Amino acid sequence: LAPTNTTNRLTVTDTSITSIQYNSQGYTGTIPTEFGLLTDVTTLELYQNSLSGTVPTQLGNMFKLKGEFNLGEQASQDALTGTLPTQLGNLTELTDYFGVGTNSLKGSVPTQLGNLVALTGYFALGENALYSATPTQLGMLTALTAHVLLQSNSLSSTVPTQLGNLEKLKHTLGFQENELSGPLPTQLGNLTSMTSFFSFGSNELTSTLPTELGYLTGMNGTAFWVGDNRLTGTLPTEFGEWTALRSFFWAEENDLSGSVPTELGRWSAFQSGVKLYNNSFCDEVTHGRRVGARD
Description:
Helix content is 0%, strand content 26%. By secondary structure, it is mainly beta.
């Protein structure tokens, strides 16, 4: 084994720096472009500091990054700004975490990020100011099992049908608080590994809820949120198949109509958190709760 020396949060193997983990250290200033010269680094963690400026394009030269690339949650006034470099699509060996969330980034999500096909953990770009359409290339990230976080941006256009290719995803599909329009794709019914946090609330979605979402029978955690949209039609009876869902079924502030399916009474594990107010249902009671009650 090669000798390894870890000083503070910098790891040196032989004569090369192989890990940079300076998270939560209160650092200020910009990210050095020279980091792009450290081509043996496998982990870059700079999250929860007070860094500012842009994300250097040179970071795309860190081809050996495998563990984490995490620049998220900068506490400075403007945090990280500018656009996401397309060169970050070169980090094709990254497996655990790709994240630049909770900053002030603008522009579109680069299509090149669809090249991060080894990523299994987090894809986290939430809480920025990203806009334009969600790239269909995100559907190429088929190894993801944990979290897709793009919430609280200004993403527009329709939800890509290709997201239905993320069949190993388990914990979070988070697109809430954007400007997405059009229908929820029926292909999202392919995400049968999902257990919790299916979230498209606070967008501008239209049309009906796909019955295919009833295939998400693994939902045994919390949070199905499609509230605060422009959805029409009825609640699918197929949602009654989510018999292990524990809490937070939110479909409030839409234009849903008809009767609330009695099949929802099969949610034997459900504890609290139904939101169906400000719709056009013709009945008032579901699963022991008055429709409109804000649990």
